[in-house]
Amino acid sequence: MPKDRTKIAKCLFPAAGYGTRFLPATKAIPKEMLPVLTKPLLQYGVEEALSAGIQTMAIVTGRGKRAIEDHFDISYELEHQIKGTSKEHYLTEIRDVITKCTFSYTRQVEMKGLGHAILSGETLIGDEPFAVVLADDLCHNGGDSVLTQMVKLYDRYKCSIVAVEEIPIEDSNKYGVIAGNAEEDGVIRVTDMVEKPDPKDAPSNLAIIGRYILTPDIFDIIRETKPGKGGEIQITDALLAQAKEGKVVAYKFKGKRFDCGSVDGFVEATNYFYNKSGV
Questions:
Q1: What is the DSSP letter of 178?
Q2: Do residues 178 and 192 touch, judged by C-beta distance below 8 A?
Q3: At CA 33, angle to CA 32 and CA 35, rounded to 5?
Q4: Among 89-93, 177-181, 217-221, where is mean pLDDT lowest?
Q5: Burial 132-161 (b: 16+ CB within 10 A, else e)
Q6: What is the 3-state secondary structure (H, E, C) of 233-264?
Q7: Rounded to 5 degrees, what are φ and ψ at 259?
Q8: How far is CA 67 from CA 34, 77, 87, 179, 237, in A?
Q9: Is residue 161 part of a domain?
Q10: In the predicted model, is pLDDT for residue 113 greater than 70?
């Protein structure tokens, strides 16, 4: 049976960064493996992709990230030690993820920005639309996950989608910021995107967060994209090329997002999930 290339079947996780804001904790531990309560950030992201009907996880790693592969694999010694004990249930969630998903990995040899990291994953994605999750943006929703909402939107629009939220304008220099025209409630056809603009230059207060759906032509566009701010290849610059052809929509998602790439956001997420757990 031929593959349906209009469905989102794969999710790419760029996970090669150094996590310098969490040093010294991230000297030997990937930042994506930092736990919010008892679960690593990356597992939350994988579970979100799974909730959206995606079962193929493509992870772009780097040196010192072996713990990621080990986490999404069976630990026979550990399982043997706790089998039949009161602690066995602690592995139920991760076992379920391992059973339902296929994981593949490649390395980003040089850190050249998010655009380059996504391009590094081309060999795992191929010629089909795909989701991208940045694990340090932890999202929670009591109903459909953010990625589930975006996959449903893709079924209608069949173009690249970026998740956006309103931010204080003084924080614009931390994000990619969009401008555009409303298509429907919460959906904007993007006309402009700027990477980390000064507040006075920001085209709006709508900032892109770490959830994307991208069409496969993005790989060729990234290849042609020149390095931008900080000498890095920015996905925002590549998406702007698509936006100029009317092929990008922004989505004001329903849910809560925590910036777990910052210590403040990480603590906020930990407190939120702790209170929600009822422990």
A1: E
A2: yes
A3: 110
A4: 89-93
A5: bbbbbbbbbbeebbbbbbbbebbeebebbb
A6: CCHHHHHHHHHCCCCEEEEECCCEEEECCCHH
A7: -85, 85
A8: 11, 16, 22, 39, 32
A9: yes
A10: yes
Residue-number span of the structural domain to which 131 is assigned? 10-277
Distance CA 235, CA 66 (A): 26
DSSP per-residue string spanning 25-60:
GGGTS-GGG-EETTEEHHHHHHHHHHHTT--EEEEE
The domain total for the chain is 1
Q: Residue type at 204?
A: S
Cis peptide before 24 (omega within 30 of 0): yes
**Per-residue DSSP letter, 217:** T
With respect to residue 209, please indicate whether it lies within any of the assigned structural domains: yes
Q: Predicted confidence band at 279 (pLDDT cuts at 50, 70, 90)?
A: low
Q: Token match 């929509």: residue?
A: 249
* pLDDT exceeds 60 at position 147: yes
Task: State the CATH number of the domain containing residue 64.
Answer: 3.90.550.10
CA angle, 117 then 236 then 39, to 5°: 50
pLDDT at 195: 86
**Residue 255 token pair:** 């849910």
Which one, of 48, 22, 28, lies nearest residue 210 by Cα? 48
Q: Is residue 258 part of a domain?
A: yes
b or e along 175-195 (b: 16 or more beta carbons within 10 Å of the residue's beta carbon)? bbbbbbeeeeeebbbbeebbb
Long-range residue pairs from 31-35, CB within 8 A, at least 24 positions apart, any chain = 31/136, 31/261, 32/65, 32/68, 32/135, 32/136, 33/67, 33/68, 33/71, 34/260, 34/266
pLDDT, mean over the chain: 90
What pLDDT shows up at residue 271? 96
Whether 156 is covered by a domain: the verdict is yes
192 contacts 180 by C-beta, under 8 angstroms: yes
Rounded distance, CA 71 to CA 266, Å? 20
